[in-house]
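Subject: complex prediction, re-run

Hi both,

The earlier run crashed halfway through, so I resubmitted it with identical inputs.
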Amino acid sequence: MHLNLSTNQAKIEVMTDIDFKSYLETRQARIDAAMDRYLPREDTYPVSLSKAMRYSAFSGGKRLRPILCIASFECCGGAGDGVLPIACAIELIHTYSLIHDDLPCMDNDDLRRGKPTSHKVFGEAVAVLAGDALLSFAVELVLAEGGKSLGSGLAVRILTDLVRAAGPAGMVAGQVVDIESEGKEAEPETVKYIHTRKTGALVASSARCGAMAAGAIDSVVDRLSTYGTKVGLAFQIVDDILDVEGSFGKLKSDSRLDQKKRKATYPTAFGLEEAKAAAAKLACEAKDALADLGETAAPLRLLADLVVNRSF
Amino acid sequence: MHLNLSTNQAKIEVMTDIDFKSYLETRQARIDAAMDRYLPREDTYPVSLSKAMRYSAFSGGKRLRPILCIASFECCGGAGDGVLPIACAIELIHTYSLIHDDLPCMDNDDLRRGKPTSHKVFGEAVAVLAGDALLSFAVELVLAEGGKSLGSGLAVRILTDLVRAAGPAGMVAGQVVDIESEGKEAEPETVKYIHTRKTGALVASSARCGAMAAGAIDSVVDRLSTYGTKVGLAFQIVDDILDVEGSFGKLKSDSRLDQKKRKATYPTAFGLEEAKAAAAKLACEAKDALADLGETAAPLRLLADLVVNRSF
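This time it finished cleanly. Structure:
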């Protein structure tokens, strides 16, 4: 079956595994190519900063968030490359957060996705600054390139959503509570708080921003928001489960690091079986939120399944 | 003489020292009150993050950048509180950069303005995250509150300028080169590079953004940009001079810290006398840029003098 979402959505009736694999690959490639165009070249002075920004941006990320953003955009009738600055900005914000999370004063990780973390390669100072630079750069990307492709009204709406998700009421708050819960017996409510903010907020925003970029009406944006919130939480729960079950060698640097540090995890707070049931339920609810969006939502449904059924 | 810049600019003919002192105080008070309104309350969960954001935002900063922004706004015919979200966002971006600069992996400062630095009070992890949060929050402030008071077109233009000044081609680049020049004999060109970016970029942007917020035409924004660039560089040169001459107890935590670390400074690269001459020349050039802006530019002229003649 020929997949051509962006130019003729009516063609999609059933999406096979092969279609979906190719769907993910083509979108990953578009995201990678766009990031390569946007980011400062590696020889831009100061070279250590440009290299550090690129090193983490191209360190094997699965591009879940930007793919979600693009899938949401296309689900809502968007077509073409106008959404790419938004999708890339989301990935750069995610990248900045990983660089800072890995720092010795945070999770102290030497490896991520099997490669040395930013501070191991460039030193702590440049790692902190590369994270800072990526956040500023992501904002500039939405305003400049996003403003050009989508108009400044949409760029403002999208950027407001993104920085709220990333800031002191979202991702950063989740990371603070995560750090402060380390080594303690975290309450179930605390684990939920951490997950919905540290991972969930930016994932939900990715889905919303794609819909907004396509000019979706508020009620549709709300559906995508519900979908993204459920998928984001499911993603983190599955991450925790994979940590416990030890089958995360491909994704995680150190197999039981979060366990070793006694991080607040879903299986610890709720039990392994309940955690698995919760993830499956969230994926169903995520798909339910898309019920009346028809076949253009097929990739989003498959993404929800992928998040829960992955073994990496 | 009664000073009432915001409601009747024609009234200002001569600004005495007393007028200027009161000018600075009233604007500091407006900025502090607005920051207090905007920032998350201290009891907002997670409390450590909210406290850390506020601790550094209210740690005795002179508010040079936001005052420059307001003075530039008023110089260009702006009136009222519409510029306050922009002025406060600038100060929060400055605050985030200080928190990160003070980290053990950067300048490793235990004190700033006589008070323990963020990481000494809240720990390194929360300090990094408070800086991250302030940057995201500043962006949100410009979009949400600035968008409301100035319209989204101006908010976008201003925010684009600000994040360019703060990001990998501005402030962050300056900090990277500063860190990498430590302990080396820095070339005069390198010192200039560091100063124009690490300090100069955000100061120049402050002056530009104030003018933009007032709806100034491009040629006037350009004048304010020249003014801000000169003042920003002069500010940093004077900082270096005060470090050498040891009369900076009020401003710096550790009197000869930059010297001790063999930081790239203007007096080291150019000699003390040449540094002093350069600062004085820059202040003159800054004022020259305002030549045809009349008496509404009086506070900006006095600010240029203050930057060069300060002993703190």
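DSSP finds 14 helices and two strands in chain B.

- K.
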